[in-house]
Specification:
heterodimer; A: mainly alpha; 14 helices; 0% strand; globular; B: 2 strands; elongated
Chain lengths: 253, 102
C-alpha cells in the first residue's frame, strides 16, 4: 500500500488530525528522551526502549520507577500492567490486520492508543486500514526520531534539579492521565490507589508502592455501556491536552 | 535499567498487541475485563504522579517539586498546550528552589 493511495482514501481532516497527534507525541517523545538521559540513564535505554516497547506511558513509568531507585523487575511489572490495555485494542483493530502473517506480525507493533482511536473513527474497511497504517507508521517514525533528539539534548543538561526537571516527569504523566479521570469511578480508584502508594513509600522497597496502588481497582465499579478503553500510551491522551483534536479523545472513550 | 528488563517489557507488550490479530476470531474479551484494564492504566499513572511528585527515596521530596506539579496540573485542566504545561511545572520548581524552598 503506497502512501499516495493512503492519502486519497482518507479524508483530509483525518490526515490533518493524524499530523497533529504526531506533533503532540513528538513533544512527549522528546521529553521522554531528555528526562531519561538527564536523570542518569545511558542514551541507549530510551532509544532501544522506544523502538521495541513503543508505548509512551509505560516507557515513562518504567524509567520513573528505575530513576526513583526501584528494581528492574518492578519497572517491568509496572509497564506490563499499564500496557495490558493494548490487549483489547488488538481485538478492536484485528480486522485491519487480516492478511498474510508478516502483516499481522509487523502491524501488531503499530497498535497504540492513537492508531486504535483513528481506526475506530472509520467504518469503511478500506478507510480503517488506511487510517491504521498511516497513523501507525507515522507515529512510529516520529516517536523514535523525537526520542533520539530529546535524549541527545538531555545529555547536555547539567544540574537537572536546579532546572526543576524532576517535576517534569510527574507533570508529563499528569497531563497524560487527566482526561481519563473524567469518569467518576476511574477517579475514585485512582485517588485511593495514589493515597495507598504514597502511604506505602516510606516502608516498602521502591517500585512496589506504585504496584500496590492497584488495590484502588476495588473501587473501579462496573463498566459503562460503551467500554472502549482510554488511557495513556505512546503519548496517548496527550491528544486531549492539545487544543484541537478533541474528536480523537472522544472517540477513544 | 538493564537490557533484559527492556527486552522483557518489550516482549510482554508485543504479546498484548499480537493476541487480538492472532485470536480475534476465536475469543471475545468481556466488557468487565476491558473496563478493569483501562482503569488499571489510569490508577497506575496517577500513583506514579503522586509518588513522583511527593516522594524522593523513602521520604518527602520537599515543597518545590509538588508545587511545580500542581501548577502543571492546573494548566493541563485548563487545556493549556502540552509544552506549556511541562515547562511551567519545571520552571515553578526551579524558581522556588532559587528562592530557597526545598
Amino acid at each position: 500500500m503506497d502512501m499516495r493511495s493512503l492519502f486519497r482514501t482518507l479524508e483530509s481532516a483525518t490526515v490533518r488530525d493524524i499530523a497533529l497527534v504526531c506533533l503532540a507525541d513528538a513533544l512527549v517523545g522528546a521529553s521522554f528522551g531528555a528526562i531519561s538521559v538527564s536523570g542518569g540513564l545511558p542514551l541507549w535505554v530510551p532509544v532501544v526502549m522506544s523502538l521495541l516497547v513503543f508505548a509512551g506511558g509505560s516507557q515513562f513509568a518504567a524509567v520513573g520507577v528505575v530513576l526513583s531507585g526501584g528494581g528492574a523487575l518492578a519497572a517491568v511489572a509496572t509497564g506490563l500492567v499499564l500496557n495490558a490495555r493494548l490487549l483489547p485494542f488488538g481485538f478492536t483493530v484485528a480486522d485491519v490486520l487480516e492478511g498474510p502473517w508478516w502483516r499481522r506480525l509487523f502491524g501488531a507493533q503499530l497498535i497504540t492508543d492513537e492508531s486504535a482511536a483513528f481506526v475506530l473513527r472509520q467504518s469503511d474497511g478500506r478507510r480503517r486500514r488506511a487510517a491504521f497504517w498511516l497513523c501507525g507508521v507515522a507515529l512510529f517514525v516520529v516517536w523514535n526520531v523525537s526520542v533520539v533528539l530529546g535524549a541527545a539534548a538531555g545529555g547536555l543538561i547539567g544540574d537537572t534539579d536546579a532546572l526543576g526537571l524532576d517535576a517534569a516527569f510527574p507533570a508529563v504523566l499528569l497531563a497524560l492521565v487527566l482526561p481519563s479521570l473524567d469518569d467518576r469511578r476511574t477517579r475514585a480508584a485512582a485517588v485511593v490507589g495514589a493515597v495507598v502508594a504514597v502511604a506505602a513509600t516510606p516502608c516498602l522497597p521502591a517500585g512496589l508502592p506504585v504496584l500496590l496502588s492497584l488495590v484502588g481497582l476495588l473501587f473501579a465499579g462496573k463498566p459503562l455501556v460503551t467500554g472502549e478503553p482510554r488511557a495513556a500510551g505512546a503519548g496517548g491522551v496527550v491528544v486531549a491536552a492539545e487544543s484541537r483534536p478533541n474528536a480523537v479523545k472522544e472517540e477513544v472513550r | 535499567m538493564p537490557l533484559y528488563a527492556v527486552l522483557l517489557l518489550a516482549a510482554g507488550t508485543y504479546a498484548y498487541r499480537l493476541a487480538g490479530p492472532l485470536l480475534g476470531h476465536r475469543i471475545e474479551l468481556s466488557e468487565r475485563l476491558r473496563h478493569l484494564l483501562a482503569v488499571a492504566a489510569s490508577v497506575l499513572l496517577v500513583a506514579l504522579v503522586a509518588t513522583g511528585a511527593l516522594t524522593q527515596g523513602h521520604g518527602f521530596a520537599g515543597w518545590a517539586r509538588p508545587a511545580g506539579v500542581l501548577v502543571a496540573g492546573v494548566l493541563a485542566l485548563r487545556r493549556a498546550p502540552f509544552p506549556a504545561v511541562v515547562v511551567a511545572g519545571a520552571a515553578t520548581t526551579a524558581v522556588l528552589r532559587l528562592c530557597g524552598v526545598g
